[in-house]
Amino acid sequence: MGVFGSANLANMMGGKASPHEIERLVDKLNIIPSDNISRVSSEDVRVTAIQLLRKNYSSLADYIVDMNLYISDAVNRRAQIVCFPAFTGLLPVTFVPQFQTALPRLRPLASTGFPDIGDMVDALEYFSDFVFDVYFNTMSALAARHRIFIMAGTTLYYEKGKPHHRAFLFNSDGDMIGFQDKISLNTLEKALEIESCAELKLFETPFGGVAILTGEDADYFEPARIARNLGAKILISPNISMHEYTPVNMALGLNMRVQENAVYGVQSMLVGDTGLGFATEGYGSVFSPNELLIKKNGSLAHTSGRYEPDIVCAKLNYDRLEDSFSPYIHDKNPELLAKYIDRLY
Fold it and tell me: How far is CA 44 from CA 27, 121, 206, 207, 286, in A?
């Protein structure tokens, strides 16, 4: 396993990632189950986008406490669905001693702007099982204790020896009701030979249909239109921005998909120093069709800043989507189409 040796990480860490140990630590938080999903109404769906600060955790308990702080804040604001950002599932790696030793080998090279791909592949394979178990079991337990739905962000998940960039959705019993693999891979993901996905899934929830568009998937028209045609009322985008995040960015990506399809959007962001020589920033946001907003900018709510930990909660009214009308996507001219469609295509 290159610079990481051949020893099994899960064995080296003992029982620190076992479901039993995670359940024990979650129980110590004395979480009181919420009644946030006891009443479901199409006029009042409460969503939360997490703006998660990336930081180093000292232990499994430290990681669980931090995840619970974000969720508890959302639950106190009556959230029914809590949405975490991209790569939330990789954060437990920071309390693994071997990771801090290996970190200098994973920083981008000046010559290419990317880490050494061989070292990165070794790292992903070496840490993946342990880190995934921590992430998955923690999110499952917290969803069940708080009695809410959690879109747990994304992680790199190995299936049949191939890595997938995968998002997970948990229900209020802590059961995974589905996952969505990323469709549109960026340059680094292609270099790491991550498997792309060709299927956009719809997840049925008590709050209507939900679809997940990870990162660049929200940059393209087709996945969002497929999601809407399948019945999605909410597009959730776990995201990360590796460049300066400006007001222009707020008008692109998920906001554009919301305007094109007359649905709601929830964008969660990972911010802060990555430990790899660069920082990330952005806004956790909830987007709405312009026709339903006074300012006509698509932003129903967003976090207060680009760099710090925060959450944003919003109330969605599906019934108002029926009132949303845009001549660009709804107005049809059958006679014109019949005359010109063959010439265009």
Answer: 30, 44, 12, 9, 14
* Distance (Å) of CA 342 to CA 120, 235, 313, 326, 329: 49, 33, 46, 25, 20
Give the angle 25-27-33 at the CA atoms, nearest 5°: 135
Q: pTM (2 decimals)?
A: 0.87
Closest C-alpha among 148, 190, 182 to residue 165: 182
Give 335's contacts (C-beta < 8 A, 6+ positions apart): none
pLDDT < 50 regions, the chain: 1, 6
Strand partners, 155: 166
- Report which of 213, 195, 217 is spatially closest to residue 203, judged by C-alpha positions: 213
Structural contact between residues 141 and 26, judged by C-beta atoms closer than 8 angstroms: yes
With contact defined as beta carbons under 8 Å apart, do 41 and 319 qualify? Answer: no
Strands 81-83 and 149-159: parallel
Q: Vertex 37, ends 33 and 41: CA angle to 5°?
A: 160
pLDDT value of position 3: 52
Q: Which of 317, 313, 316 is nearest to 76 (CA)?
A: 313
The predicted pLDDT at position 305 comes to 82
DSSP state at residue 44: B
Residue 191: per-residue pLDDT? 86
Q: Within 10 Å of residue 305's Cβ, how many Cβ atoms?
A: 12
Task: Name residues whose C-beta falls within 8 Å of residue 23's C-beta, 6 or more positions apart in sequence.
Answer: 137, 141
What distance in Å separates the CA atoms of residue 124 and residue 242, rounded to the nearest whole number?
20
3-state secondary structure 244-290: CCCHHHHHCCHHHHHHHHCCEEEEEEEEEECCCCCEECCCCEEECCH
Query: At residue 73, what is the residue type?
Result: D
Show the beta-strand stretches assigned E in 68-181.
81-83, 149-159, 162-170, 176-181
